[in-house]
Backbone:
């Protein structure tokens, strides 16, 4: 009854910056109308949105562009302007909180917020392998401690990053 397609693309630019693009499209296999807003034919996008975030090597947002080629309600495009406040912010730990503070609730758009959260993972994948390297300051790579596989006590961290591996203390009652 509904198809959502989300695609991310990451590029290294000739000027040394990184562009990470996100695109969301929602379609339905049947025609429908929203009273006072419009009518959509089967397969016609009700949502078609694009976001491009430009990052520097320090993960600082240097630019952001957004477009809504299709949206169901007249006020929807007003939710694009708050994204500009992300310029100068660092993409990394706390990114979700920055998004929520910048364009959460009634200030923004659920779909754009969702794209921006997922865009960080696409940026991380685009920037691999440098994103997987420990920091020059001896800090662990930013992905450690973010999921089950990359937990500091996981066998993957023990094998790939022994310097940062922390064995889990045995629980009371463990044999």
Residues:
């Amino acid at each position: 009854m509904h198809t959502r397609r989300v695609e991310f693309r990451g590029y290294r630019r000739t000027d040394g910056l990184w562009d990470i693009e996100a695109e969301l499209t929602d379609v339905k296999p049947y025609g429908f109308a929203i009273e006072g807003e419009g009518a959509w034919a089967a397969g016609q996008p009700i949502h078609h949105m694009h976001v491009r975030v430009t990052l520097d090597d320090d993960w600082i947002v240097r630019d952001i562009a957004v477009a809504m080629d299709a949206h169901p309600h007249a006020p929807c495009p007003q939710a694009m302007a708050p994204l500009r406040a992300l310029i100068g912010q660092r993409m990394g730990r706390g990114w979700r909180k920055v998004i929520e503070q910048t364009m959460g609730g009634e200030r923004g758009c659920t779909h754009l917020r969702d794209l921006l959260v997922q865009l960080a993972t696409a940026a991380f994948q685009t920037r691999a392998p440098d994103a997987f390297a420990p920091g020059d300051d001896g800090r662990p790579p930013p992905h450690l401690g973010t999921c089950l596989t990359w937990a500091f006590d996981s066998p993957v961290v023990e094998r790939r990053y022994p310097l940062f591996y922390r064995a889990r203390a045995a629980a009371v009652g463990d044999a």
Remarks:
- Residues 8 and 125 are 10 Å apart (CA to CA).
- The two ends are 52 Å apart (CA to CA).
- The mean pLDDT is 92.
